[in-house]
TrEMBL record:
The keyword DNA-binding applies. Residues 1-129 form the PPC domain. Pfam families: PCC. PANTHER family: DNA-BINDING PROTEIN, PROTEIN, PUTATIVE-RELATED. This is DNA-binding protein. One of its GO terms (molecular function) is DNA binding. Gene3D superfamilies: Hypothetical protein, similar to alpha- acetolactate decarboxylase, domain 2. Signal peptide: none annotated. Keywords: DNA-binding. Transmembrane segments: none annotated.
Length: 132
């Protein structure tokens, strides 16, 4: 395993930036082990819903985790608002960094991840490919 600490800056799209990093670097297979920071906008898709819910205001990232490949990401996040109310779900495009996002990626040597359509779920799901 190889670790890669990252810092995203104000205005960055959290999901977009992570996917761009995965496309631009020979990551192959990685997991987001943890992420903290703040957002001004969070687009979270809650369980069982097709569309994300847009949260705005001063939001703190409490947890961020998921898998990352060159062809996409599967990320979950919990955020709290200024009153301490917590929301969590699937990270969609449009989560905008407010002050910082500090993220730890772990690259898995010897593997390549891809997202492939699974007819059982109707979604592109993680496919794990061992590499020599």
């Amino acid at each position: 395993m190889q670790t890669l600490p990252l810092r995203l800056v104000p205005g960055d799209d959290l999901r977009g930036a992570l996917e761009a990093i995965a496309r631009a670097n020979p990551i192959g297979a990685a997991f987001v082990m943890q992420g903290i920071g703040s957002l001004s906008v969070a687009n979270l898709r809650y369980a069982g819903l097709d569309q994300p819910t847009r949260l705005t205001g001063d939001l703190e990232i409490l947890t961020l985790a998921g898998s990352l490949a060159a062809d996409g990401a599967h990320l979950h996040m919990a955020v709290s608002d200024a009153q301490g109310h917590v929301s969590g779900g699937h990270v969609s495009v449009g989560c905008i960094v407010r002050t910082t996002a500090e993220i730890l990626l772990v690259r898995l040597a010897g593997f390549r991840f891809s997202r492939e359509f699974d007819p059982r779920t109707g979604f592109p799901e993680l496919s794990i490919h061992p590499q020599a």
